[in-house]
Amino acid sequence: MKSTEQLRPQDITVKKAIDWEPVKTNVITALTFGIMGLIGGYFIAIHIHGDARAAVIQDIQIVSKEAK
After folding, report:
1. How far is CA 28 from its chain centroid?
2. Angstrom distance (rounded) from CA 63 to CA 67
3. In Å, what is the CA distance from 47 to each residue of 21, 36, 42, 56, 64?
4. 4, 42, 51, 62: which sits with the fewest CB atoms below 10 Å from its CB?
5. Dihedral angle sign, alpha carbons of residues 39, 45, 51, 54
6. pLDDT score for 68
7. Using alpha carbons only, what angle is made at residue 48 by residues 59 and 38, rounded to the nearest 5 degrees?
8. What SS3 state is found at 15?
9. Where are the domains of the chain?
10. pLDDT in single tens digits along all 68 residues of the chain
11. Which pLDDT score is estimated for 30?
């Protein structure tokens, strides 16, 4: 084996500039938490909105009873 061995082009492996594995994992994690947050917010909004609507309906009923 020669000490000054010449490298052929196929011997040179170019490392990818960006390792996409952690990026992919982070994006998936972020999307998952984002979707979970949207779903949670949606249910909370429905819950509050439903309660508020029920309270308004009760108020209307009370007012209409008093008016009679």
Report:
1. 8
2. 6
3. 39, 16, 9, 14, 26
4. 4
5. negative
6. 65
7. 160
8. coil
9. 20-67
10. 555 667 666 666 776 677 888 889 999 999 999 999 999 988 888 877 767 777 777 777 777 777 76
11. 95
* Furthest C-alpha separation in the chain: 109
Q: Which two tokens stand for residue 54?
A: 């029920």
How many residues comprise the chain?
A: 68
- Only one residue has tokens 């972020």, namely 30
pLDDT value of position 21: 86
Tokens, residue 40: 């949670």
Residue type, 67: A
